[in-house]
Amino acid sequence: MTDHDPGCEKCEELLQGYLDRDLAPAEVVVAEGHLDGCDYCRRRYRFEERLRRYIRISASERIPAGLRQKLAELRDQSPAL
Amino acid sequence: MSETEAAGARRIAAEARGRVRFEEEALELADQVYRVARRLVGTREEAEELVQETYVRAFRSWSSYTPGTNMRAWLLRILTNLNLDRGRKIQRTPDLQPLEEGDYFLANKLAAAEGEQALDQERVVEKLSQDNVVEALSEVPHDFRDVVVLVDIGEFSYADAAQILDVPIGTVMSRLHRGRRILKQKLAEESLT
Question: Secondary structure of chain B in the HEC alphabet?
Fold first, then answer.
């Protein structure tokens, strides 16, 4: 187990903003500085990235063909100008 | 044909072209609209109905759409409003038990079960089956789930999600954070117990 120092808590706090690319430049420096030296957090950040991709893929369902057809028909039915 | 008649005809023709463009663009987005709708509501039938109602309303009120703005967000705004009208949120989400699990909760659980090195594997996420992801997502309370679905599945920005749900951007960020934590906790419950 890698040492879990107090910097890791800060890193955990910055996780969402970092992955969403929503951190101030100074915070990015803090996060990356820590990630460079900490296997524990680096693993978890990478894991989170993969997890998000996996969630997106797993939860994405394609539109049923019948519905697509119905929507196209709605267009023909909508009142003229 | 008089000058005014000709101008009138040109205006009508331009409007018709604008409308056709609008409808085509809206239909091209149907897959993405459905994908989000499917996770906002409980069943496939509800999602299909909601998407149909959304397009009925969108086609009817096409002139209120400003060309060049984000049509996908505009459609989702209609959809979430229709969903509200259906009274879903009349039943408020009951208060959750305080949730103190951190952002690393799921990763830590996996590391404990499979070893720290397992987190390095590209396929580690597949320990969570796709069915479990869908199930876990459906167990996240609505207010939090809506934001997670819009941002993490619909790939909307914080700002677009705020506009669609009519809440401040800070609310989007805090619900997103909380929603993702709840989702990870549910995933751990589904997959690792």
Answer: CCHHHHHHHHHHHHHHHHHHHHHHHHHHCHHHHHHHHHHHCCCHHHHHHHHHHHHHHHHHCHHHCCCCCCHHHHHHHHHHHHHHHCCHHHCCCCCCCCCCCCCCHHHHHHHHHHCHHHHHCHHHHHHCCHHHHHHHHHCCCHHHHHHHHHHHHCCCCHHHHHHHHCCCHHHHHHHHHHHHHHHHHHHHHHHCC
